[in-house]
Design the sequence.
């Protein structure tokens, strides 16, 4: 008879996400996970199947806890374009304050495991779709209020912002002065505002 689970699965997934985010998939061993999470290897395998299963759970948690917060943040009231700028600059600030910036878990996973891992490819695609949809919702609101031009190609602009965000996450890991990217973000955002 299997022993009852003695850990909070959501807490384990959350802490595993942070560990994978910091060390990468290959850089995180099962020993690292069990030591950091305080979970017996047998319990880990029974719950998640293997390290890969736990990684997929961590990517799903990232989607739900990070990516899904974008649309509500952009639609919280008031002008949207400054909120988009704040989201982008927030990642720059995080990187500037870290000794070893870790970028974005999704960009890291794509760089480390794709192509070649269909399950991770599906998870990465899901997260990017949620992010792009969040930007789309924000831009649609900006068009409705006249903050963004009525002629704005919203789907293309949402895709551009998603590419900007993910590219930014890669660059901040290597740039010794991430704050210099503020001007690049502002240049990219210029085309979104309505000419008044």
Sequence:
């Amino acid at each position: 008879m299997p022993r009852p689970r003695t850990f909070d699965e959501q807490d384990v997934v959350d802490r595993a996400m942070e560990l994978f985010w910091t060390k990468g998939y290959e850089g995180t061993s099962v020993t690292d996970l069990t030591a950091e999470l305080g979970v017996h290897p047998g319990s880990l395998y029974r719950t998640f199947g293997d390290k890969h299963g736990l990684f997929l759970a961590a990517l799903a948690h990232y989607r739900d806890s990070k990516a899904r917060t974008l649309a509500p943040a952009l639609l919280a009231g008031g002008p949207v374009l400054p909120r988009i700028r704040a989201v982008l600059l927030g990642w720059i600030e995080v990187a500037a304050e870290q000794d070893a910036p870790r970028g974005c878990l999704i960009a890291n996973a794509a760089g480390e495991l794709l192509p070649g891992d269909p399950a991770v490819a599906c998870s990465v695609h899901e997260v990017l779709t949620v992010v792009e949809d969040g930007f789309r919702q924000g831009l649609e609101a900006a068009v409705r209020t006249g903050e963004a031009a009525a002629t704005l190609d919203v789907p293309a602009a949402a895709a551009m912002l998603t590419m900007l965000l993910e590219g930014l996450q890669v660059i901040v890991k290597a740039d010794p002065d991430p704050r210099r990217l503020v001007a690049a973000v502002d240049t990219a955002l210029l085309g979104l505002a309505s000419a008044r």
Summary: The longest helix spans residues 118-144. The chain is about 65% helix and 0% strand.
